[in-house]
């Protein structure tokens, strides 16, 4: 990643690098029975604390709240609800929340509102009775001086997480702009395997011509009918007939004056893309929660690279079961300086 020490004159810059919170709750502790059953109005109030709002929503599998033949209430909540936000995305499954925000957002200010919405009596309990794990992560900010408290420093962010969780903080990578800050509170029993994955490709120093062509409506003769995620879906996920990713529901949006966000949901997983094309702060991130084989991971990385030529690429893989990533070498990507964490 590249870091610019001083914002350009005129303020033509945007902090594209995201801050991400993930919390997995124990299902029987969720007051509504599922995160997907908590009303949209409640999530809008939660997100106001993070300085962002919901623009659109899609589901991988629609909620089924019908009655059984015996007249009893039944609900099917398996799947993912994806909220495309004014500043990135919110994903909700039955038990797991992922809030990924960019710009001058304050996602850590939404921590307590999230807990209040999910488990109103959480303060009367130990959080390890309610939560399976929680994490907070981000790369180094490009414009750290623009970030409001408590997201103005890693120490402040860790202090907020420690206020709620019992976790560990670390900084991976080295060099300006290549550090990945990570906090994890893991309440899983030792040796338990859980389906908690993330593979993210983050690119900076984007080709200015290609980035504006792909991630901006400005200069286009006609509004674009679709964006890169829908166009590049098979390049990222493959085209295997039985792959759940083939049933994806994609939600895309171009922002004014520049910028692009997209969510794709399928089964219990999501893929999301966020891009800022301005040369002073160009950035592209492509992330999926779907567990990937080595071959699928290499395809995903190369597909992300094909979205826009870049000068620097960082690949991060996260799992609460590190053995699942054992002996995995980074893919060979031509033309990029890679940082792998």
Would you give an account of this structure?
The protein is of the alpha+beta class and 341 residues long. Strand 4 and strand 5 form a beta hairpin. The radius of gyration is 20 Å and the shape is globular. The N terminus is likely disordered.
List the helices and strands and how they pair.
Elements lengths: L18 E7 L14 H9 L5 E6 L21 E5 L2 E5 L3 E6 L9 H8 L12 E9 L14 H11 L3 E5 L7 E7 L10 E10 L1 H8 L12 H10 L11 E6 L5 E7 L2 E8 L6 E6 L5 H14 L2 E10 L17 E4 L1
Parallel strand pairs: 14-15
Antiparallel strand pairs: 1-5, 1-6, 2-3, 3-4, 4-5, 6-8, 7-8, 9-13, 9-14, 10-11, 11-12, 12-13
Helix pairs in contact: 5-6
> Unreliable stretches, pLDDT < 50, 5 or more residues?
1-11
**Morphology call:** globular
Q: In whole angstroms, how far apart are the ends?
A: 12 Å
In spatial order, strands of the major sheet run 2-3-4-5-1-6-8-7
Radius of gyration: 20 Å
Helicity level, as a percent range?
A: 10-25%
- State the secondary-structure class: alpha+beta
Average pLDDT, rounded to a whole number, is 85
- Largest sheet report: 8 strands, antiparallel
User: Could you tell me the strand content as a percent range?
Assistant: 25-35%
